[in-house]
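ok trying again, last paste got cut off:
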Amino acid sequence: MTLNKTKLNRILVMWLPLTLAASFWPLPSNAKENQKCQLPHSGNLAGNVTLEPSCTYFETMTINTSNTNIDCKGATLDGRHTEKTGILISSKGNHLTNVNIKNCTVTNFTQMGILVTSEIPNFQRSKDPKIQ
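nice, full thing came through this time. structure:
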């Protein structure tokens, strides 16, 4: 089969935009880093934790242990408009103290960037204002 110049030009006109679109498809600037960017312990963090500064994490960070210090070092928590909460600090009804989080970018979560809660339903909470 021989191609004349007109047929060859039509083929190039049809395939060239597809080739260019595929080669210039925008990838996240840190796409390679994202392969290794997962929060330790499935996002349930305790103790002293330092995150990779060039990473974007696509999961919720959960803290329910006292004496927890998180330094994101500029890393991003991105909910991709699908996750509800970026950072969940929950005492689960227990006394929780000395929780520090710094240098985090929290973005694209559907409900809250940061939620601090006891997770005790209202009907189980005391009506007595003297009880803390």
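cool. Residues 30-117 form one domain. The radius of gyration is 24 Å.
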